[in-house]
Amino acid sequence: MPSGSIHICIANKVYNEIKTDYEPYIIGAIAPDCWRHSKLHNDKMLSHFSYPCKVNNINIRLEDYKTFIFKYKNYLKDPFVIGYLVHLMTDNYWKTKVISRYNFIIDNKICVKKLDGTYFKGTIEEVEKFIHKNNKILTVYLTNKYQLKRLIPYQINSIIEEIDLSGINTTINHINETLLYNLEEESLIYDMNLIDKDIENITNIIVKEIKPYLN
Q: For residue 104, which phi and psi values (nearest 5 degrees)?
């Protein structure tokens, strides 16, 4: 799934097009990921409206944001709700349009395609560690390129039943810590110019889809 920095980048660019109350909106845009820090329930599939499917023959869980829209269609002008929707849409499109370029099944194992055209292969743990390191490098790039700012805790009364917000401040603190990464290495996976285009493309898709609900 895309990192917190990806979510903030896209959420900020969408915000520039839709203009809503920023503080509850940006908290909504990271809220689905607070499932891992929540006290009442820790169900990622619930918070993300996910369903199992396959992309490049890899079993994944894809965000069914249209079900979210159907359920909360009467609340889509609420800044927190629209931010939450932007998160789900970002996850969906990043997985299907971006991550699918890098993750493949070769010899029944998940492999990651590198910039030089070769593949990183290993155990699941080794592959996850390799991706995580490159995601940290990507976060450093995005933080500097898009001048990402630390998130400020904001009191939210959410109508969304699928998330327990007791963990939201822990999630905010975690994202803020990632924005302090300081790595000077080059990514072995990501072409940063292509990532910039991905962010722009997905932003445009999201804005086009959600604007009719805001009129």
A: -140, 160
